[in-house]
Amino acid sequence: MRRTPAVKEIFIWAFWIGLAIMFSVFLNSYVLVNAQVITGSMEGTIMTRDRVFGLRFFDTPQRGDIIVFESPLPQYFNDPFVKRVVGLPGEQIAIFSGVLHIDGVPLPESYASQSRRDFAPIIVPDGHFFVMGDNRNFSRDSREWGPIAAESIIGKIHITFSPRPVIIASHTY
Hints:
Elements: H1 5-30, E1 32-36, E2 51-55, E3 66-69, E4 81-87, E5 92-96, E6 99-102, E7 105-106, E8 119-123, E9 128-132, H2 142-145, E10 148-149, E11 153-162, E12 166-167
Antiparallel strand pairs: 1-2, 2-11, 3-4, 3-11, 4-9, 5-6, 5-8, 6-7, 9-10, 11-12
């Protein structure tokens, strides 16, 4: 049976569309991460309902990195959380007079609102990170549910892409 040029064209288009779908599934599953910030906890840096984009593979998170991780409260929220890494394994974290302290030293945070509540010192366990939202008074974060396990981190955020693209730089100290 001889195929007509139209049938041949349909097969070629179907092949390329199928390949594009498989490639996008691969990228979304193993390389890229995208999430939506569903609360105002990161406002000042990322607004409520913004969509963010990052990479699933990354070096060990550093202080100031914005990460996306599995919900630490799966009984209430299924969506991943987006927060900033403020405490690294082995460090002592505390908030006194609204200022974050790392190992007893105040940490200047130009991106964050000052917290209205103090937080008693804790040591971040090995293999865990202390994360907080930039909008400290309206953020559910490690102050509530403790440090997060490194295994729960999905990726590091680099860009907001909706409603408008903005590059998010990690805050270095």
